Each structure stands twice: as structure tokens, then as C-alpha cells.
């Protein structure tokens, strides 16, 4: 045998991934000595085990980190007039109520008012369930606190103005522009409810106003609309 043909070279070490093997092992008929092969197999197994352990440890560290609660806690904003968006007027009114009731905790006061409102709305829904508001007399509608009762009042006011403009008034100066203010003068109610109702029925209202070329200025009269336009006690449509 020629030893130099099988000596360990740097190129062989690099090509074998760092293992010190003969430079002719890749040639046909050249095999690794059995003892050396067993040793290399054990080394490879140890390397794989080490790699597995390293991967497992890394995974465990990751899972351990992910399971830990975040150190950054989200601070919930305190309940204050500013957070609730209350105007100065409402803040003064609320403070007045707090003084009258002896309440000093703003948050507790707001929570109590919310609970009362929820109970009121739940009771209102149960109390008026199944009622026919369209056939209810106007005087009773005005005493009833219910969204459908309010809607029926506004509907009747709208129809009353529309009827007056079309069948009673004989000139532009006698007709009335239909808007939240004119409806309010006839049946009362809060503008926070009347205005959205008018928005939902904008097409009908605008069509009537356009038919007679009415504007808001046409409501500046020497008499109030409630003096000449009457909303019937019972629906006529």
C-alpha cells in the first residue's frame, strides 16, 4: 500500500464536513474501516442528539416566554366628564345632582345612572309591548315615553302640516315649512328625537317643501303654527 495515497488532507476534511477521512474514500471499491465507521456513527448520533436537545431547549425557552403575562399592562382610562364627552352644562347639572344626593364618587354616580336607565328601558319595553300606537289618541301618545309613540306623534304632526298646506292655505304666506322646529311646536318632544326622525323621512318632507317652494323663512309669521294647524286626536289616514 502507498500511505501517501491515503493520507489525510485538508481538502478531504473540508469535503467531509470536518471529519478526518481518507482522500480516496469517494472512489469505487474504497471502504471505511469498520472500527472507524462505528466511531463515526456514534459521533453523528451524538451530534444529532445535541442538535435535538439544542432545538428542544430553544423551543422550551420560546414557549416559556410566550406563556408569561406581558409586563406592559393596558391602563383603562378613568371615568371622567372629559372621557364621557360631557359639556360644561351637563357637568354642572350632574354635580348638582351629586350634591343633592350626597354622592362624591363620580364613577359610582355614573354607574348608578346607567343602571337606572337600563331598568327604565327594560320596563318600558315590557309595559308597552303589543300596543298599537297608530290607533292611540294623541293625548295619550304625549304621555307615553316610548320610541314608537314619539314616532307616531311626529308622523301625525307632519301629516297635519302637509294637509293644511295643501287643503287649507290659499297662498304661500299661509303655508308652513316642515322641519324639526315646526313639528316640535305641534306635538312637543325632544329635538334629539325629532331631528333624526326628520332625517329618516327627508325625502317625503323635502318633496312637500319643494312642491310649494317653501323655505325656513316662510315660518316667520305673526302667528304661531300651533294656532292654525291642528293635529287631530285620532289618526285620519
What characteristics describe this protein?
mainly alpha; single chain; 59% helix; 237 residues; 0% strand
Structural summary, described in words:
- The model has no long low-confidence stretch (mean pLDDT 78).
- The radius of gyration is 44 Å and the shape is elongated.
- Among the domains are: 81-127; 134-228, no CATH class.
- It has 11 helices and no strands.
- It is mostly helical.
What's the order of the H and E elements?
HHHHHHHHHHH
| Distinct helical segment count | 11
What's the mean pLDDT score? 78
Total number of β-strand segments?
A: 0
Structural class: mainly alpha
Brief overview:
This protein starts with 9 loop residues before the first helix and ends in a 9-residue tail after the last helix. Among the domains are: 81-127; 134-228, no CATH class.
Topology:
Layout: H1 10-15, H2 34-67, H3 81-84, H4 88-101, H5 106-127, H6 138-143, H7 147-168, H8 180-187, H9 191-200, H10 202-211, H11 225-228
Amino acid at each position: 500500500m502507498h500511505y501517501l495515497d491515503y493520507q489525510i488532507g485538508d481538502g478531504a476534511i473540508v469535503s467531509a464536513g470536518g471529519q478526518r477521512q481518507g482522500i480516496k474514500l469517494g472512489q469505487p471499491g474504497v471502504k471505511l474501516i469498520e472500527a472507524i465507521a462505528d466511531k463515526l456513527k456514534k459521533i453523528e448520533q451524538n451530534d444529532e442528539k445535541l442538535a435535538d436537545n439544542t432545538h428542544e431547549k430553544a423551543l422550551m425557552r420560546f414557549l416559556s416566554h410566550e406563556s408569561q403575562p406581558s409586563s406592559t399592562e393596558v391602563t383603562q382610562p378613568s371615568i371622567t366628564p372629559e372621557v364621557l364627552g360631557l359639556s360644561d352644562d351637563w357637568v354642572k347639572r350632574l354635580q348638582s345632582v351629586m350634591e343633592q344626593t350626597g354622592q362624591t364618587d363620580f364613577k359610582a354616580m355614573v354607574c348608578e345612572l346607567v343602571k337606572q336607565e337600563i331598568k327604565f328601558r327594560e320596563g318600558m319595553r315590557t309595559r308597552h309591548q303589543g300596543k298599537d300606537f297608530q290607533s292611540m289618541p294623541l293625548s295619550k301618545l304625549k304621555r307615553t315615553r316610548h320610541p314608537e309613540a314619539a314616532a307616531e306623534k311626529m308622523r301625525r304632526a307632519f301629516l297635519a302640516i302637509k294637509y293644511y298646506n295643501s287643503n287649507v292655505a290659499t297662498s304661500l304666506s299661509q303655508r308652513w315649512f316642515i322641519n324639526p322646529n315646526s313639528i316640535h311646536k305641534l306635538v312637543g318632544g325632544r329635538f334629539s328625537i325629532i331631528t333624526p326622525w326628520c332625517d329618516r323621512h327627508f325625502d317625503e318632507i323635502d318633496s312637500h317643501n319643494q312642491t310649494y317652494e317653501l323655505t325656513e323663512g316662510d315660518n316667520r309669521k305673526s302667528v304661531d303654527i300651533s294656532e292654525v294647524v291642528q293635529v287631530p286626536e285620532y289618526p285620519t289616514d
